[in-house]
Amino acid sequence: MKNQPETLGKLPKISIVGYGAGDAANNLAFTTATMFLLVYYTDVAGISAAAAGTLLLVVRVFDAFADVFAGRMVDRSYSKRFGKFRPFIMFGSIPLLLLSVATFSVPQIGETGMLIYAYLTYAALGLAYSLVNIPYGSLAGAMTQDAGERSKLAAARTIGAALVGAFLGIFIAPLLVPDADLQTMFTTVTLSFVVVGTIFYFFTVFTAKERVKRDVNNVTMKQSFETLRHNKPLLLLCLSSVLFLTGMMAMQTVQLYYFRDVLGDIGLYRVYAIVQLVGTFALAAIVPTLVRRFGKKRSYIAAAALMMVGGLIVLFTPAQNIPLAFGGMVLALLGIMLVNMLVWALEADTVEYGEWTTGVRTEGITYALFSFTRKTGQAVGGALAAYAIAFGGYQAGADQQTVSAEWGIRAATGGIPAVFALLAILIMLIYPLTDRRHAEIVAEIAERRAAGQTGPAINPALSTAAFKVPRSDARP
Q1: Which of 13, 144, 422, 452 has the fewest CB atoms within 10 Å, i.e. the most exposed one?
Q2: Which residues partner with 83 through β-bridges?
Q3: Pick from 375, 363, 359: which is nearest to 457 by CA?
Q4: Can you give the pTM of this predicted structure?
């Protein structure tokens, strides 16, 4: 048990902060695209909403497969000095940030030329993001096996993402008004993010180190997919996550349209961003308590229910009732933030389940499959949102949208999130890996290592059928 204190003990605060900085850097590219790329394509580049929706769908599906490729690259790699994950962050960060600049620099070369350029640059951005984000996300499971510490890491990355989102919402979103020089603004912002993001990424590299012992450093493709095949908790978590992300991405893709074109006050986006920032810190402070008291599963379900209720409020509240409509957006936002804090810790737990069934840790392909499903949800959600506003008859640059166009925006902002949040909850109700069972699995793995055993604890061929939660584990 020589490695147990380092593996299961508390992480240094600088490691937690450093890990959070990595997701802040990720979101300089990711959240900028999530919040503004559709608006950029329709209002700046001049691409139609329907064509932009198809572009988002196709490229994000490609991104999902890029995640699987990145996961295999991670599982096959190992550096004695930097471990499995940090080399990808070191060498992939600057190309990723530069591609973000290129994505928001569509040249005026005709409709066909602009679409080709947009497809190529956004696809390249997605591939670069996969090669950085998959190892970054996998790193958490290799830093600690303690549930409380993993919750802190999940909260730290959510805070990092929220800080970036708040900055974009407070300082950038209000600038997206007719007649502004938006191309110059986007070029300046993305270039500055190259510098800031590089600093954040390298702070992560030198502070967030791997501590969990592994028996196999280079994982074969057979071992990777054997682990996935028998990991029922991971598969259920992926299914729930793809549904939740579909709803979340639909809301995030068009929320700017909702504030500007339905509620008629783009300044509300700044208030919304401030609420998001404050709410993130408040939730991060209570998430460890929620996990200890209710478990990650129940907390996830409750958070998804918040998004569902908030979406219904947004869908059915008249635009004239701004306080209630804004309250619905905030309620949904709280649910989204809480799920995003919990889901990374849930994903890390499934790594131990896979190791328990097969004897091999496969953080890379496990996180890649999870990210694959999330990217699929993002692709579908973003496309559904774009199609909804196109179906409603959205007109770029119009001072006043039609009633039909406003309903299209409301459906994308509230209706789609509500439906998919409900579906995510139904899947999560049968998720079997409770916090108590996970702790027992970690203990069994440690005992196996202490006894010099490296094989699986149970027959992998029977693992998904044999995995049952004992009555004593009925609580999350």
Answers
A1: 452
A2: 79
A3: 359
A4: 0.70
